[in-house]
Amino acid sequence: MYKSDFSVGTGRDQTNPFSMTFDERERDLKKVEEQKAEIKKREGSSPYKRFAQYNLEQTAALMWLTKYHPNAMLILFFITDQMDKKNALSCTNGVIAEAVGVSKITVIRNVQVLKDNGFIKVLKNGTANVYHVNSKLYWKNKGSNLWQAAFSANMVLSLKEQDKDVQESIMHSTRIDIPGTGESFLLDESTGELL
After folding, report:
1. Which of 27-30's residues contact partners 24+ apart within 8 Å by CB, and which partners?
2. pLDDT tens-digit profile of 155-185?
3. What stretch of H or E contains 38?
4. Do 91 and 111 contact (CB within 8 A), yes or no?
5. Which of 20, 75, 109, 148 is the most exposed place for a label (fewest CB within 10 A)?
6. Domain ranges within the chain, ordered by starting residue
């Protein structure tokens, strides 16, 4: 007999060792689905409570930043450590200055370095900034959720308060709704990056 002789029916065929009942087949299929779910659960879990993933393709850029702009790297570490699972952090320059032990002027100058070199985007929210870390560099969620690297907080931001490059980016973007979630994100049409 060959596996091609496999059969399922209302009763077992006593002459075919590859036959089973519908109930037996349903039980076997359920076991397979449970095993798949367990494997998927284990793959998605981590022994670490707090972690961020880092794209090794960006090592050269981070080495450059560390060598030539160590305070910018320090600030990037702080932002990355504090950001949520959507790669965003909202705080003032004073908070960063106090946390990393530098002046506000040093924060402002080095945040500009991070912006100019594509490590972060900065949005204005009154006197605070919303820092969004480039998801091609770091992210705090599972790799399969990388596409969700966007803001999760409900914030009302003024387009007029944003830097000119952010205004341009928003003006040339497309809003994409995530079905069934009530969430959406902006896609920059010129770069293909999430805003």
Report:
1. none
2. 545 566 677 777 777 766 766 666 666 666 6
3. helix 22-44
4. no
5. 109
6. 3-44, 53-188
Span 109-155, pLDDT tens digits: 999 999 999 999 998 888 889 998 998 898 887 655 554 445 454 45
How far, in Å, CA of 175 to CA of 186, rounded?
5
pLDDT for the residue numbered 147: 46
**H/E stretch holding 106:** helix 104-116
What SS3 class is residue 139?
A: strand
d(CA 120, CA 114): 6
What's the angle, vertex CA 127, arms to CA 121 and CA 132, rounded to 5?
20
Q: Which two tokens stand for residue 57?
A: 């393709």
Burial class of residue 74 (count of CB atoms within 10 Å of its CB; 0-12, 13-18, 19+): buried
Please give the helix or strand (H or E) that residue 116 lies within, else none: helix 104-116
Read off the amino acid at residue 3.
K
